Amino acid sequence: MRLRRNLMWWTKITLTLLVFLAGTYFTVRQALHDARDVSVQVRKVTPQAKALEHKIIATPANEPVVPRGYKDWHDYDRLFKESKQIGPGEQGQAYNLPPKYQNERDLLYKVNGFNARASDDIALNRSLQDIRHPKCKEKLYLEALPTASVVVPFHNEHWTTLLRTAISAVNRSPDTLLLEVILVDDASTKAFLKDKLDDYVRENLPKVRVVHLPRRSGLIRARLAGAKVARGDVLIFLDSHTECTTNWLPPLLEPIAKDYRTCVCPFIDVIDFETFAYRAQDEGARGAFDWELFYKRLPLLEEDKKNMPEPFKSPVMAGGLFAISSKFFWELGGYDPGLDIWGGEQYELSFKIWQCGGIMVDAPCSRIGHIYRKFAPFPNPGVGDFVGRNYRRVAEVWMDEYAEYLYKRRPSYLKLDAGDLTEQKAIRKRLNCKSFKWFMTQVAFDLTKVYPPVEPPNFASGKIQSVASSNLCVDTRFKHHGDRFDLQECGRGGEQTFHLTWHKDIRPGKRPVCWDVSSGDAQAPILLYNCHGMGGNQLWRYDPGFHSGDNFTGSVSVMYAVIVTTANVLISRVTMHSGHLVQHWKSSGLCMVVIHVVWTAILVTKKFLCQRVIHN
Ligand SMILES: [Mn+2]
């Protein structure tokens, strides 16, 4: 017993001694090491060195403090080099192709739907102006960000626009973050997209590779094919005629680094289809849809505006450009492989993300330009109403009782065979996803205010007939977005029935085009424009008690009235003069007629002036 206690005592003493000796050894060693370092760094302590040392220790308030774990990801060397670049389209400026290339231009326009000949004169690594929110320039992002694979599906893309997509992504990404750019050739028929592309990429773009699909698969399956071979932590899908701008990548990756179930969309800017000028589309909006599943946008929330340029929540993505972790993408089953060609996939993925535990945000500091084509140059590869079939699949699996609102507007979808939905419904069950009602009330909570599931009735419907020449009626003659229209003989074919809808816009027939005045000129033409249902340039109202010359006691100070010349339907500014409307056009010498409206649906005989009202 005693022996044992002695032994323990000796052991304790020995251990304490050992710890003490080891401690002394390391302290002395560190001191010697430090002394050596100091002797190397400060050979002679000059006043300047002292000041410098002081500055480093006591960082003045105006110097940026980089918090631990964060980093300024800007590539300042590249930014400086790009700022010196000059030439066609440089700094994102418009490039006007010299007229001598008109023939080449026309040929390439036909096959691309944009001015591809102009693109050919613009450097593949052209510079762009920095149009980001000013605060983006100072933003720091996590140092530890996941790696990214960029997936770019294409079918018969033009050479220079395709390469500019890849090169802008590579050049403007930190080397450590961008693993690869995968170009997925969806069975293109242009010869240069085969061996020539493979050779070019092999020789010039080590991070880029091309995957050729053996047969035409459509956008959705081409994206899936690219995603399957991607090795990065994050999948970034891009369109094949885009340009990534400065520091676009870290803002897409950071929200995913913080929570892998976040899907992030960049701001999509506009590359002009004619001149390749780079400009903003807007400064942000939340993605939405109407009940025919047309993509729409909702205004930012007050808190989103206040937090700019921090990422804000968005109910659905536009579709073409987004980042998602590979892990989450495949947990969700990727895209429904039963979706054909294109259409509806952006809703399928968006609903799935939200309903199955993820979130979707837009990152204002990540901006990518996109060429919106003037027209679609390719024939549709799909059979029958493939978009309708896709919508039906999405509605059946994800939209619950809200699917009825779609079918009510598109009864033909009920007759389409959507195919086998077992696997998709199993995913929803397996991931314990929430209901569509949850999505509509918690995520897209303001959507039904703008796009009510059951449309309120029109305010009025009928012909718009000239009072001065009662045989003439406004006729849009089935014209399209961007077109003007005029008067025709009443009842002579054409498109002469109009609706003043509950959106307070005017639509011919049942088409989603609206009367729109985008110019602020005193006598601006009224054009047909895709309806946005948000008032603004498309806000019209009528005042049944109002006739020209009447006293006007409304609260608005500037009013416009619909007038017509022999050739155009115009809008004209009318101003108040001591309580009376002064009609400017009367003194201008032009031949114009005030249009009176006969709204047969509501007021069979009463005539009144249709006004467009600008609220100051
Ligand atoms: Mn596109």
Can you walk through the features of this model?
The radius of gyration is 32 Å and the shape is globular. Residues 31-60, 544-559 and 573-616 have low confidence and may be disordered. Among the domains are: 85-134 and 146-371, Spore Coat Polysaccharide Biosynthesis Protein SpsA, Chain A (Alpha-Beta Complex), CATH 3.90.550; 460-612, Trefoil (Acidic Fibroblast Growth Factor, subunit A) (Trefoil). With 616 residues, it is α+β, with helices and mostly antiparallel strands. The longest helix is centred in the N-terminal third of the chain and has 40 residues, at 2-41. It binds manganese (II) ion (MN).
List the topology elements:
Blueprint: H1 2-41, H2 47-57, E1 70-71, H3 76-83, H4 102-112, H5 116-121, E2 141-142, E3 148-154, H6 159-171, E4 178-185, H7 195-204, E5 208-212, H8 218-229, E6 234-237, E7 242-244, H9 249-258, E8 262-271, E9 278-279, E10 286-289, E11 295-298, H10 302-307, E12 312-313, E13 322-325, H11 326-331, H12 345-355, E14 359-371, H13 386-398, H14 403-409, H15 422-430, H16 436-443, H17 447-450, E15 460-462, E16 464-466, E17 472-475, E18 486-489, E19 498-500, E20 506-508, E21 513-516, E22 527-530, E23 541-542, E24 558-564, E25 569-577, E26 580-583, H18 584-587, E27 593-597, E28 608-614
Parallel strand pairs: 3-4, 3-6, 4-5, 8-14
Antiparallel strand pairs: 1-2, 6-13, 7-14, 8-9, 10-11, 12-14, 15-19, 16-27, 17-18, 19-20, 21-22, 23-28, 24-25, 24-27, 24-28, 25-26, 27-28
Manganese (II) ion is lined by residues 239, 241, 320, 370.
Organism: Cherax quadricarinatus (Australian red claw crayfish)
Membrane topology: Single-pass type II membrane protein
Enzyme class: transferase
